[in-house]
Amino acid sequence: MIFEGTKNQFFFGLELTRAGLSVPDSSMLIILANELDTTVSELLGEPVAEPTTDDLKILSEKLEVINLQLAKRSITKVKTIRWILISLCAVIVVIFIALASTNSFYLNWNYNDPELAVAGTILHGFEFLFVRLAPIVFLTSVVGVVVTYKKR
């Protein structure tokens, strides 16, 4: 017999008991078909027709179309990522130029005024974090752009 153990143990292992499912789910059918070296269609009692050369030709044409669509989608995805990274580099450069041209003007403000104190602190915090994190992000983006060009 193919199965080790009793029929009850087999169905219990498939969770096909009275308390469980009455029909196995699709993943269970696939596993069962693989274990029994058969197809899911045969397990379900459906007739399986032998593929003809015309069927294989039609199938290969469909697979070729799907492969081309996946390749186009992959190329589009890489191009999108590349342009996002290039845009990020451009934004970082523009912000660096803006910060360099302002020369930390907020340091000369009168910090006795609470509104100016809050605004100056926010600007100083932004500049502090930006100057430390932007080079890392910039270099990572440049590496990402180079990698996306190399994958062609």
Strand content: under 5%
| Count of DSSP H/I helices | 5
The percentage helix is over 70%
Number of strands: 0
Output the structural class. Answer: mainly alpha
Question: Can you describe this structure?
Answer:
- By secondary structure, the chain is mostly helical.
- The protein has helices at residues 7-13, 26-35, 40-43, 53-102, 114-150.
- The protein is elongated, with a radius of gyration of 32 Å.
Task: Report a brief summary of the structure.
The chain is mainly α. The chain is 71% helix and 0% strand. The protein has helices at 7-13, 26-35, 40-43, 53-102, 114-150.
Could you name the key traits of this structure?
152 residues, mainly alpha, 5 helices, elongated
Topology:
Blueprint: H1 7-13, H2 26-35, H3 40-43, H4 53-102, H5 114-150
